[in-house]
Amino acid sequence: MRKIKVGILVSGRGSNMEAIIENSKKGNIDAEVAIVLSDNPDAPALEKAKKSGVEAMYIYPGEKKTYMTPDREEEYVRVLKEKGVELVCLAGFMRVLKKTFIQAFYGKIMNIHPSLLPSFPGLNAQKQAWDYGVKVSGCTVHFVDEGVDTGPIILQRCVPVLEDDTPETLAHRILKEEHKIYSEAIQLFAEGRLKVEGRRVRILPGK
Ligand code: GAR
Questions:
Q1: Phi, then psi, of 112 in degrees rounded to 5
Q2: For residue 31, which of 109, 141, 157, 193 sits 20 to 30 Å off, Cα-Cα?
């Protein structure tokens, strides 16, 4: 099967990015990581990507802390389009995307979030869940719209909260599941099996 070209946006550690790169290299997914972009020049993810032979660069995101102005979004879009990117994966990218970016890749942007959305959107989702005292949390891959963690849900995986968990141990167990479901969602997209109907993402049967 043809491999789709994926662009990954990162701000920090990049473990989800690494899992996607590894799965693409092993041929576990019909995807090739064409470019990694970061809004943080010191993101460890940039070095990790380069070490595995994937082009990676920092692009100045502008002065705003939580989002980018249209001109900055245009620059990200320009580079992604130049690389022929067909699917954008946010992997720990800590900025909200606005209209310019979303319209350029409408229906072709995914995000991973470390909770069972719509519970605990935003920052420190694992700690939010632990503080609240839920017995089950997990992770979500969803399409990105202009809200914060609000787009149609593609896949979710449950992770139990154990008696002796701390926010850190819970986050660690959730992360292991994140690494699996992100690649699963990318593969479903590559196979053309995701159909968005309003809030619902239908997963079409495989061939
Ligand atoms: C992951 O847990 C991801 O779900 C989370 O940031 C972490 C990035 O780790 N994303 C969000 O909270 C987005 N709202 P990584 O850089 O090792 O992939």
A1: -110, 140
A2: 157
CATH 3.20.20.70 assigned to 4-195 = no
Q: What is the DSSP letter of 43?
A: -
Q: Are strands 194-197 and 200-203 parallel, antiparallel or unpaired?
A: antiparallel
Residue 74 phi, psi dihedral angles, 5° rounding: -60, -35
- Ligand 1 centroid vs 12 CA: distance in angstroms? 8
Domain ranges of the chain: 4-195
Pocket residue to mutate for ligand 1, from 178, 180, 182, most atoms within 8 A of Cβ: 178
- 42 three-class SS: coil
Tell me the chain's radius of gyration from C-alpha atoms: 16
How high is the pLDDT of residue 1?
82
Query: Which residues, given as ranges, of the chain have pLDDT below 70?
Result: none
